[in-house]
Amino acid sequence: MRRIALALILVAGCSSTPEKRPGGYYKDDGPGDSAKLAAVADAVPRAEPLHRYANRPYEALSRKYVPLTRVSTYTQRGAASWYGKRFHGNPTSSGEKYDMYKMSAAHPILPIPSYARVTNLANGRSVVVRVNDRGPFHAGRAIDLSYAAAYRLGYTAQGSAQVEVEQIVPRGAPLALQ
Predict the structure, then answer these.
(1) Which residues contact 30 (CB under 8 A, 6 or more apart)?
(2) DSSP state for residue 39 in the 8-state scheme
(3) Nearest to residue 107, comparing CAs of 84, 86, 131?
(4) Beta strand 75-83 pairing with 141-146
(5) What does the H/E/C string look like for 106-153?
(6) How far apart are alpha carbons 152 and 119 in whole angstroms?
(7) Angle 144-146-148 (CA atoms, 0-180°, nearest 5)?
(8) Cα–Cα nearest to 174, from 97, 115, 109
Protein backbone atom coordinates (compact mmCIF):
# COMPACT_ATOMS: atom_id res chain seq x y z
CA MET A 1 0.00 0.00 0.00
CA ARG A 2 2.83 2.38 0.85
CA ARG A 3 4.48 1.65 -2.52
CA ILE A 4 1.28 2.53 -4.36
CA ALA A 5 0.97 5.82 -2.45
CA LEU A 6 4.62 6.66 -3.19
CA ALA A 7 4.15 5.82 -6.88
CA LEU A 8 1.10 8.08 -7.07
CA ILE A 9 3.03 10.96 -5.47
CA LEU A 10 5.91 10.53 -7.92
CA VAL A 11 3.58 10.42 -10.93
CA ALA A 12 1.70 13.50 -9.71
CA GLY A 13 4.99 15.36 -9.23
CA CYS A 14 6.12 14.57 -12.76
CA SER A 15 2.81 15.65 -14.26
CA SER A 16 3.16 19.11 -12.74
CA THR A 17 6.27 19.84 -14.80
CA PRO A 18 5.44 22.66 -17.26
CA GLU A 19 4.82 21.46 -20.79
CA LYS A 20 7.26 22.98 -23.28
CA ARG A 21 5.55 24.36 -26.38
CA PRO A 22 7.09 24.63 -29.82
CA GLY A 23 8.87 27.95 -30.11
CA GLY A 24 10.81 28.06 -26.87
CA TYR A 25 8.29 28.93 -24.16
CA TYR A 26 6.23 26.99 -21.68
CA LYS A 27 2.50 26.73 -22.39
CA ASP A 28 1.67 28.96 -19.42
CA ASP A 29 4.35 31.56 -20.19
CA GLY A 30 3.64 32.72 -23.73
CA PRO A 31 1.75 35.74 -25.01
CA GLY A 32 -1.73 36.80 -24.02
CA ASP A 33 -4.55 36.78 -26.53
CA SER A 34 -5.19 40.51 -26.91
CA ALA A 35 -1.68 41.97 -26.96
CA LYS A 36 -0.77 44.36 -29.78
CA LEU A 37 2.90 43.62 -29.42
CA ALA A 38 4.16 45.25 -32.61
CA ALA A 39 2.74 48.59 -31.43
CA VAL A 40 4.45 48.61 -28.02
CA ALA A 41 6.67 51.69 -27.99
CA ASP A 42 10.29 51.72 -26.85
CA ALA A 43 11.01 52.96 -23.36
CA VAL A 44 11.86 56.67 -23.34
CA PRO A 45 15.13 57.33 -21.50
CA ARG A 46 14.87 59.99 -18.81
CA ALA A 47 16.86 61.02 -15.79
CA GLU A 48 15.74 59.05 -12.73
CA PRO A 49 17.32 58.68 -9.31
CA LEU A 50 18.99 55.32 -8.83
CA HIS A 51 17.19 52.91 -6.52
CA ARG A 52 18.78 52.88 -3.08
CA TYR A 53 18.39 49.15 -2.37
CA ALA A 54 18.30 47.47 -5.80
CA ASN A 55 21.88 48.53 -6.53
CA ARG A 56 23.54 46.90 -3.53
CA PRO A 57 25.82 43.86 -3.92
CA TYR A 58 23.85 40.60 -3.77
CA GLU A 59 24.13 36.86 -4.22
CA ALA A 60 22.01 34.63 -6.47
CA LEU A 61 22.48 30.92 -7.12
CA SER A 62 25.72 30.94 -5.10
CA ARG A 63 27.25 33.68 -7.25
CA LYS A 64 28.04 37.20 -6.05
CA TYR A 65 27.10 40.28 -8.09
CA VAL A 66 28.15 43.89 -7.64
CA PRO A 67 25.79 46.21 -9.55
CA LEU A 68 27.11 49.33 -11.19
CA THR A 69 26.27 52.43 -9.18
CA ARG A 70 27.06 54.88 -11.96
CA VAL A 71 25.19 55.58 -15.17
CA SER A 72 27.88 55.58 -17.83
CA THR A 73 28.80 53.94 -21.09
CA TYR A 74 28.55 50.16 -20.96
CA THR A 75 28.44 47.63 -23.78
CA GLN A 76 28.04 43.88 -23.59
CA ARG A 77 27.38 41.06 -26.03
CA GLY A 78 25.73 37.82 -25.04
CA ALA A 79 22.52 35.83 -25.01
CA ALA A 80 19.19 37.44 -24.32
CA SER A 81 16.27 35.44 -23.01
CA TRP A 82 12.78 36.64 -22.14
CA TYR A 83 10.24 36.22 -19.38
CA GLY A 84 6.48 36.26 -19.71
CA LYS A 85 3.25 35.28 -17.95
CA ARG A 86 4.85 33.30 -15.14
CA PHE A 87 6.30 36.58 -13.78
CA HIS A 88 3.63 39.03 -15.06
CA GLY A 89 2.39 41.14 -12.14
CA ASN A 90 5.11 39.99 -9.74
CA PRO A 91 7.37 42.56 -8.07
CA THR A 92 10.71 43.34 -9.70
CA SER A 93 13.92 44.20 -7.86
CA SER A 94 12.89 47.85 -8.04
CA GLY A 95 9.55 47.07 -6.37
CA GLU A 96 7.56 47.79 -9.54
CA LYS A 97 5.23 45.16 -10.95
CA TYR A 98 6.61 43.30 -13.95
CA ASP A 99 4.56 43.94 -17.09
CA MET A 100 5.36 41.61 -19.98
CA TYR A 101 3.77 44.13 -22.39
CA LYS A 102 6.17 46.99 -21.57
CA MET A 103 9.73 47.52 -22.76
CA SER A 104 11.63 46.41 -19.69
CA ALA A 105 14.57 44.21 -18.80
CA ALA A 106 16.44 42.40 -16.06
CA HIS A 107 20.21 42.69 -15.92
CA PRO A 108 22.56 41.38 -13.24
CA ILE A 109 24.63 44.56 -12.82
CA LEU A 110 23.24 47.55 -14.77
CA PRO A 111 21.95 50.28 -12.43
CA ILE A 112 18.27 50.21 -11.51
CA PRO A 113 16.63 52.08 -13.07
CA SER A 114 18.57 52.61 -16.24
CA TYR A 115 18.00 52.36 -19.96
CA ALA A 116 19.63 50.22 -22.62
CA ARG A 117 19.46 49.74 -26.35
CA VAL A 118 19.35 46.03 -27.13
CA THR A 119 20.15 44.92 -30.69
CA ASN A 120 19.50 41.44 -32.07
CA LEU A 121 22.76 40.60 -33.84
CA ALA A 122 21.06 38.15 -36.23
CA ASN A 123 18.56 40.60 -37.74
CA GLY A 124 19.74 44.09 -36.70
CA ARG A 125 16.48 44.98 -34.90
CA SER A 126 16.85 47.24 -31.84
CA VAL A 127 14.66 48.26 -28.91
CA VAL A 128 15.14 50.58 -25.95
CA VAL A 129 14.26 49.03 -22.59
CA ARG A 130 14.13 50.24 -19.01
CA VAL A 131 16.17 48.05 -16.66
CA ASN A 132 14.10 47.57 -13.49
CA ASP A 133 14.93 44.02 -12.40
CA ARG A 134 17.82 41.65 -11.64
CA GLY A 135 18.67 38.55 -13.63
CA PRO A 136 19.19 36.43 -15.59
CA PHE A 137 21.23 34.13 -13.40
CA HIS A 138 21.89 31.40 -15.96
CA ALA A 139 25.44 31.03 -17.25
CA GLY A 140 25.97 32.66 -20.61
CA ARG A 141 22.92 34.92 -20.50
CA ALA A 142 23.47 38.67 -20.55
CA ILE A 143 19.94 40.04 -20.20
CA ASP A 144 16.31 38.99 -19.75
CA LEU A 145 13.82 41.02 -21.74
CA SER A 146 10.10 41.44 -21.35
CA TYR A 147 8.00 39.42 -23.77
CA ALA A 148 7.15 42.60 -25.73
CA ALA A 149 10.84 43.51 -26.18
CA ALA A 150 11.75 39.96 -27.27
CA TYR A 151 8.83 39.95 -29.71
CA ARG A 152 9.97 43.23 -31.27
CA LEU A 153 13.52 41.82 -31.58
CA GLY A 154 12.10 38.75 -33.33
CA TYR A 155 13.26 35.92 -31.09
CA THR A 156 10.28 34.81 -29.00
CA ALA A 157 9.92 31.60 -31.02
CA GLN A 158 13.57 30.65 -30.46
CA GLY A 159 13.57 31.61 -26.77
CA SER A 160 16.91 33.41 -26.93
CA ALA A 161 19.13 35.42 -29.26
CA GLN A 162 22.61 36.87 -29.39
CA VAL A 163 22.39 40.59 -28.65
CA GLU A 164 24.40 43.69 -27.95
CA VAL A 165 23.40 45.68 -24.86
CA GLU A 166 24.38 49.38 -24.75
CA GLN A 167 23.53 51.47 -21.71
CA ILE A 168 21.95 54.83 -22.58
CA VAL A 169 22.90 57.89 -20.54
CA PRO A 170 19.95 60.33 -20.58
CA ARG A 171 20.61 64.05 -20.25
CA GLY A 172 20.57 65.05 -16.60
CA ALA A 173 20.90 61.46 -15.41
CA PRO A 174 22.33 61.00 -11.92
CA LEU A 175 25.84 59.80 -12.59
CA ALA A 176 26.20 57.94 -9.29
CA LEU A 177 24.15 56.50 -6.47
CA GLN A 178 23.73 59.19 -3.81
Answers:
(1) 21, 23, 84, 85, 147, 156
(2) G
(3) 131
(4) parallel
(5) ECCCCCCCEEEEEEECCCCCEEEEEEEECCCCCCCEEEEEEHHHHHHH
(6) 10
(7) 140
(8) 115
With 0-12 / 13-18 / 19 or more C-beta atoms within 10 angstroms meaning exposed / middle / buried, residue 98 is: buried
Q: How far is Cα 32 from Cα 146, in angstroms, rounded to an integer?
A: 13
Nearest residue to 79 via CA among 144, 34, 128, 123? 144
What's the pLDDT tens digit per position in 62-76? Answer: 999 999 998 889 999
Which parts of the chain register pLDDT below 70? 1-35, 173-178
Per-residue pLDDT at 34? 44
Rounded to 5 degrees, what are φ and ψ at 116? -145, 145
